Amino acid sequence: MDQNEHQADAHRRPKKLIFAPGDIAPTSTEPTPEPKAQAAIDQTAEALRTSTSTPNSITETEVLSNAARAHQFGANPPLTVSQIHGTNPLHQFNTWFHDPRLPASSAPETCTLSTASLPSGRVSARVVYLKELDERGWVVYSNWGSREGKGGQVFGLCESDTLGAMPEPDSEPAVTSEIGSGNKWGALTFSWATVERQVRIEGLLEPLSREESEMYWRTRERGSRIGGWASWQSKVLWSAEPAQLEANQRRKSVAKLQGAFDGDSLVPADIDLTDVEDGRALLESKVKEMEEKFAGVEDIPLPPFWGGVRLVPESVEFWQGRRSRLHDRFRYVRVEGEGEGAKWRLQRLSP
Q: Can you give the residue ranges of every domain in the chain?
């Protein structure tokens, strides 16, 4: 590739697989466009859903001539300061969490835990389940012992590059200067689309005592306890270099089901027999090893690398959707004290 070709390639627009404007149908609360206008919108939206959706001059003109059909919020009345708890965000969260419009089947306890490594500042996030809320904060449980996982980010790494055991509250694991200490700042995000609400919590993560973790551990079914012992969370079980990926790709007829290839092919009946080994067998062998280890043991003990952490909040934001993106946002910021004795500043934020 000569220099001119390289410069042209550098300035080429990246192909868009999804191009949002016009791709969302109007809601029932929005005025219905005239038939001709609706036909133009539908045609534009269909063009934007194709495999070559990178806009050209024609589609750009069509898109810009129609308002983007993004979702418009309107399930709630306006959120005002008189409708939220005046002194404690944990009580306000409890009220929203138990909204009767959030049935158990919608899993309102689902949330995203975000952490960041030091000194790089690299952020990672994963979906977890809220298990407890007390006067001190939000509690989640997980495996924290792997270098590859979130434990190293939060608590730092010891000489062997693994935690080895959950640290006790107010303790620090021994870390090397090369690896660096952990970053206990974390965030939880709850998103409840059915009621058009979101809650964002930022604060410091602290480990629960072993006794507290054991109390929850005993509520888990046996299979989940075995899994807790067998899985070194985020440890690589299998990998393939770029040159190996095509060779390890499943049959094209299977990939067709994933939208990767053109053509009409049927999924083979022997897919499970012809697939390549991808590390699952290693995990299952570890599970089998743990099942043998704990055979006949009724009360499987808590692993030393597994337990709960509490996010002690520094700020808690309650977000409620409003039309035209003019959302209601209230944020509590802790100014002094802890637990039930904490004092909070309440702020309305611009959407």
A: 16-64, 85-218+305-349, 242-293
> Per the omega criterion (within 30 degrees of 0), is the bond before 167 cis?
no
pLDDT band of 221, cuts 50, 70, 90:
very high
Predicted pLDDT of residue 268: 52
CA distances from 208 to 124, 230, 258, 266, 302 (A): 22, 22, 42, 51, 13
Q: pLDDT tens, 12-53? A: 666 665 555 444 455 555 555 566 666 665 665 565 555 445
Helix, strand, coil shares of the chain, percent, nearest 5, are 30, 20, 50
The CATH class of the 85-218+305-349 domain is mainly beta
Query: What is residue 258's predicted lDDT score, i.e. its pLDDT?
Result: 47
In a 3-state reduction of DSSP, which class is residue 49? Answer: coil
| End-to-end Cα, the chain, rounded Å | 47
* Alpha-helical regions (H) of the chain: 3-10, 35-48, 57-64, 89-97, 150-155, 210-217, 222-230, 242-248, 252-257, 271-274, 280-293
3-state secondary structure of 245: helix
The answer for residues whose C-beta is within 8 angstroms of residue 79's C-beta and 6 or more apart is 318, 320, 328, 330
Q: For position 41, what pLDDT does the model report? A: 58
42 sits in the region (left: phi over 0; alpha: psi -120 to 50; else beta) called alpha
CA 103 to chain centre: 21
CB-neighbour burial class of residue 91 (10 A; exposed 0-12, middle 13-18, buried 19+): middle
Q: For 148-187, write each residue's pLDDT tens digit.
A: 567 878 887 665 556 667 888 876 654 444 445 789 999 9
Residue 14 amino acid letter:
P
